[in-house]
Design a protein that fits this description.
Arc Repressor Mutant, subunit A, 17 helices, 380 residues, three-stranded antiparallel beta sheet, 47% helix, alpha/beta, elongated, Rossmann fold, nine-stranded mixed beta sheet, 3 domains
C-alpha cells in the first residue's frame, strides 16, 4: 500500500480534482501504470488531446510525492486512499470522478465521522437570517450527534462550523485547496480550530491554491461524503446549489430552508424546493429525514386555548353566541344545532367557567371572552 499511496499522491499533483478521464485511467490501468505513463511522457493515453497530454506531462515532471508527504507529516496531515480502513466508501458513488485520495488534518476517523454527517451550505454573502439559521441548525444537529460538514467559506459555511463548535459538537471542513493552507485567509483561526476539534479535508496536495473551478468540483465531495445536504440561503447561481444538485444525482437527501419570497438570496433555495427538495426549518426535521428509523421531530401544534379544553358540543354552544349582543336560548340552540334543553345546560356550564353571563332571558359573552376568544369580532 505504500507504493500505491506514493502513486496516488503523485497523481494529485498532475490531475485536477474530479477529472473523469484520469479517473477512468486509474480504474482501468491502476495508479502505478498511469503514474509511469505520465512520467515517461510518451504517447498520450486515450481521451485527451496532445496539448492537454503535454500539460499533464509537464506537471508530472515537477511532481515530488515524497516531498509532499514530508510536508504533510510536518503539518500533521495524513493521506487517505480508497481501499483503506479510513476511506469513506460512499465516495465511491462518484465513479470515475472519485477523489484519488483525501488529505486529512485532524484526529477523528474520516470514515466513522462520515457515516453520520450532514452538509450545511449556503451563500457567502448571507443575511443575518441566513447566518442565524445555519448556526442554529448546525448546533441542533451537533447536539443530536451529527457531524456538520461545510466548506469553510464566509457566510453560511462559517456560521455552520461555528454553530457546531459552539455546541461542543463535531464539524468537518472540505477545502478547495491544500489543507495546510487555510482559505479564505480570514478564516485561518476558524479552520485551525476545526482541525483541533474536528477534521479539515481536501483533495489537493499541501500548499496548493484554490481556483473557481476547484470550488465547484469540491462540492461533489461534500455531497457524496454526507447523508444529506441542507441549503440555507442561495441565489440562483450560488455554488451551494451545485452541492445540492450533486446530492440529488447521488441519491442523497436534499433539503432547503425557506426565506422571504422577496429575498434574492433565497430565490435559489425556493427553486430547489420547487424541484423536489424537502423543506426543513430546524435540526429535528433534518434528523428525521437523514437519520435512522425513529428519529422523529416533536409534534408541531399551535398554542392551546382555554376553549380547546371544552367538550366539542359545549364549544358549539359557545360559538352560537353573537359577539356583542345577547341572544335567546332558542336562537343559540338553533345556531349550535342542538335542543334548547341541551343549550341551557351547557350555557350554565359556560357561565360557571366565566365564558358567558345571563341578561334577563338572553345570554351574552363576557367581556373577557370577547377579547380572548373572539378578539372582539364575530366570526360569523
Amino acid at each position: 500500500m505504500g507504493d500505491e499511496v506514493l502513486h496516488r499522491v503523485f497523481l494529485t499533483r498532475v490531475l485536477e480534482p474530479g477529472d473523469e478521464v484520469g479517473g477512468r485511467w486509474v480504474r482501468e490501468r491502476g495508479a502505478a501504470e498511469v503514474a509511469r505513463w505520465l512520467r515517461r511522457g510518451g504517447r498520450a493515453l486515450p481521451g485527451v488531446s496532445g496539448r492537454r497530454w503535454a500539460g499533464l506531462c509537464a506537471r508530472a515532471a515537477r511532481a515530488d510525492p515524497r516531498a509532499d508527504l514530508a510536508v504533510a507529516r510536518a503539518a500533521e496531515v495524513r493521506f487517505v486512499v480508497p481501499g483503506t480502513a479510513e476511506w469513506p466508501r460512499q465516495l465511491d458513488d462518484l465513479g470515475d470522478a472519485r477523489p484519488l485520495g483525501l488529505w486529512v488534518r485532524g484526529r477523528p476517523s474520516l470514515r466513522m465521522w462520515a457515516l453520520r454527517s450532514v452538509a450545511v451550505v449556503g451563500a457567502r454573502a448571507c443575511t443575518e437570517y441566513g447566518a442565524h439559521m445555519a448556526a442554529t441548525l448546525a448546533a441542533g444537529l451537533a447536539e443530536r450527534g451529527w457531524v456538520v460538514v461545510s466548506g469553510g467559506a464566509y457566510g453560511v459555511d462559517g456560521a455552520a462550523h461555528r454553530g457546531a463548535l459552539g455546541a461542543g459538537g463535531a464539524t468537518a471542513a472540505v477545502l478547495a485547496c491544500g489543507v495546510d493552507r487555510p482559505y479564505p485567509p480570514g478564516h485561518a483561526g476558524l479552520i485551525a480550530r476545526i482541525a483541533q476539534q474536528g477534521l479539515v479535508v481536501g483533495e489537493l496536495p499541501p500548499g496548493d491554491h484554490p481556483t473557481p473551478s476547484r470550488f465547484v468540483l469540491r462540492n461533489r465531495v461534500i455531497a457524496a461524503l454526507t447523508r444529506g445536504t441542507v441549503v440555507v440561503e442561495a441565489a440562483h447561481r450560488s455554488g451551494s446549489l451545485v452541492t445540492a444538485r450533486a446530492a440529488q444525482r447521488l441519491g442523497r437527501h436534499t433539503m432547503g430552508v425557506p426565506g422571504p419570497a422577496t429575498s434574492a438570496l433565497s430565490a435559489g433555495v425556493h427553486e430547489l424546493l420547487r424541484a423536489g427538495a424537502t423543506l426543513v426549518t430546524d435540526a429535528a426535521e433534518v434528523a428525521e429525514l437523514t437519520g435512522a428509523m425513529g428519529e422523529l421531530p416533536p409534534d408541531r401544534r399551535g398554542p392551546v386555548l382555554p376553549t380547546d379544553l371544552l367538550e366539542p358540543r359545549t364549544r358549539h354552544v359557545l360559538a352560537g353566541l353573537p359577539a356583542r349582543t345577547s341572544a335567546s336560548v332558542a336562537e343559540i340552540a338553533r345556531r349550535a344545532q342542538t335542543s334548547e334543553d341541551d343549550a341551557v345546560a351547557r350555557l350554565y356550564e359556560l357561565r360557571a367557567l366565566g365564558y358567558v353571563e345571563r341578561h334577563g332571558d338572553g345570554w351574552k359573552l363576557t367581556r373577557q371572552t370577547m377579547i380572548s376568544v373572539r378578539g372582539g369580532r364575530n366570526p360569523s
